[in-house]
Amino acid sequence: MNAITVVLAEDHQIVRQGLRLLIDSKADIKVVGEAANGVEAFEMIIQLAPDVAVFDISMPLMNGIELIEKLSTCDCKTKMLALTANEDRAYMQHLIRFGVQGYLLKRSAADELIMAIRTIARGERYLDPLIVNVLIDGVFASEPGTNSFQASRLSDREEEVVKLLAHGFTNKEVASKLDISVKTVETHKSRAMNKAGLRSRAEIVRFAMSRGWLPVT
Q1: pLDDT, averaged in runs of 10, over the chain (217 residues)
Q2: Which domains does the chain have, with CATH numbers?
Q3: Which end of the chain is more exposed for a tag (fewer CB within 10 A), N or C?
Q4: Which pLDDT value is given to residue 80?
């Protein structure tokens, strides 16, 4: 039986090395490539076509959300496993809609990672047991910020900031992309959240999805 091939995409070298040691300790799984950012990950996945790609959502150059969205436009057969500290329901739902087969929290036990890799490699989905209840709760949660009057009050700049934040960029990254200061980003973010009745980054993502700013398949 051929070993399950894996590409690791994680910008923290110590974490990446620890993951590799854990995975390579299993006879039926083999790491065939490592990437330190999203751009490297995309190129490596396309080139090596591994069975599974384990990727962190928060990566430089191209974050995990951008990575999975870009891969969704390619004829990529690699199964995707998001490994992250982010427990926001909206991020999970967005990634799953784009075809991520697994979602695992970094605080989970090491055995969960191995189980997740094996599960999605055979074509099944894997959701961290710690977040299943979060997703179930989301089915019954009302979507924030869907009031069209409130949304229409956002300025062009506030809308730009919200869109970038919803795609997973930090305040600093948004400032760099828009060529404005971090303080200005925070001001636009605060005003937009007040106008749309948003209280957290997760609600920003759900708001963006409800407005069609985060396309889903």
Answers
A1: 93 93 95 96 97 92 87 89 77 75 86 93 86 54 46 78 89 92 90 82 79 63
A2: 4-138 (3.40.50.2300), 148-210 (1.10.10.10)
A3: N
A4: 94
pLDDT at 215: 56
Q: For residue 55, list its beta bridge partners.
A: 9, 82
| 144 close to 138: Cβ distance less than 8 angstroms | no
Question: Would you list the DSSP string of the chain?
Answer: -PPEEEEEE-S-HHHHHHHHHHHHTSTTEEEEEEESSHHHHHHHHHHH--SEEEE-SS-SSS-HHHHHHHHTTS----EEEEEES---HHHHHHHHHTT--EEEETTS-HHHHHHHHHHHHTT--EE-TTTHHHHHHHHHSPPTT--HHHHHT--HHHHHHHHHHHTT--HHHHHHHHT--HHHHHHHHHHHHHHHT--SHHHHHHHHHHTTSS---
- Within 8 A by CB and 6+ apart from 27, the residues are 3
The span from the CA of 18 to the CA of 62, in Å, is: 22
CA atoms within 13 A on the CB side of 85: 4
Distance (Å, whole) CA 127 – CA 135: 10
Report yes or no on whether pTM surpasses 0.70. no
